[in-house]
Amino acid sequence: MPVYRDEAVVLRTHKLGEADRIVTMLTRAHGKVRAVAKGVRRTGSKFGARLEPFMVADVQLYEGRSLDIITQAESLGSYGALITADYGSYTAASVMVETADKLTESEGSLQQYLLLVGALRSLSRQEHGSHLTLNSYLLRAVSMAGWAPSFQDCARCGAVGALSEGGQHSAMVVQMGGIVCDDCAPPGSPRLDAATIELLSALLTGDWEHASASPERTQNQAAGVVAAYTQWHLGRGLRSLEHVAR
Ligand SMILES: [Zn+2]
After folding, report:
1. Residue 85 phi/psi, 5° resolution?
2. Could you report the per-residue pLDDT of 14-51, keeping only the tens digit for each?
3. How does pLDDT run across 159-176, given as a tens digit for each residue?
4. What pLDDT is attached to residue 228?
5. Which of 28, 35, 50, 60 would bridge with 7, disulfide CB 3.0–4.6 Å?
6. What distance in angstroms lies between residue 183's CA and the mean position of ligand 1's atoms?
7. Going by C-beta distance under 8 Å and a sequence separation of 6 or more, which residues neighbour residue 165?
8. 202 alpha carbon to ligand 1 midpoint, in Å?
9. 198 vs 220: CA distance, rounded Å
10. Rounded to an integer, what distance in angstroms lies between the CA atom of residue 202 and that of residue 97?
11. Ligand 1 centroid vs 182 CA: distance in angstroms?
12. Ligand 1 mean position to 223 CA, how many Å?
């Protein structure tokens, strides 16, 4: 029976029978894998809490007829416990794993795996505010999937825009891919403050110094744009996003 080993982050689990669980994982090398963890719900299970959502583990599996079976799991990062202990981090991580799950429906990638693990690690260490970590993750994950937003030049016609000094476009149309120029903007398009556009750009590039210094009002406006942009591209609602406090 073919056995393989990989690093994996647990996206979600659900009960199977009396004591088992089906664990959906994003792996480093094998894309998304759904596998059975036998006996994981019994006290004293050899898996302990290593196969809970947000955990990163080195797993060994063997290929089953329909689902693979997890035979071993060693923890690589105890992010799960730290994240679950903080409500803001927990809700942010829930949105991240749900997004990763949807973005990797057809196939996972090493980049999506590394991005998710990095974001969960940052969240568990509370390096930046949980909202900022979440919004940066969402923009990058959606970009990596092929839908990079434009926050500077017009997303439709490419008309050059500046990020500051008054030369910027301000109409935000998620359906068009981001910021658009006045000629392309449909009547009544929402307008963003220059500070919000700069923050969105900082979140996309990982400029944490700029992002952390931005006022709450700007962060809230940016969060709304990121949520709308992500929802639009995922094609259906992210259930967990409703629980993120705004
Ligand atoms: Zn344009």
Report:
1. -75, -15
2. 999 999 999 999 999 999 999 999 999 998 899 988 99
3. 999 876 667 899 999 999
4. 93
5. 28
6. 6
7. none
8. 22
9. 13
10. 22
11. 7
12. 24
Cα 120 to Cα 141: distance, rounded to the nearest angstrom: 13
Q: Determine the residue type at 51.
A: L
Residue 214 tokens read as 């931005």
What single-letter amino acid sits at 37? A
Count of residues making up the chain: 246
CA of 156 to the centre of ligand 1 (A): 5
- The secondary element (H helix, E strand) that includes residue 208 is helix 208-213
Q: How many Å lie between the centroid of ligand 1 and the Cα of residue 219? A: 26
Look up the pTM and report it. Answer: 0.93
| φ, ψ (nearest 5 deg) of residue 237 | -60, 145
- For residue range 67-119, list pLDDT tens digits in order: 999 999 999 987 888 999 999 999 999 999 999 999 987 777 899 999 999 99
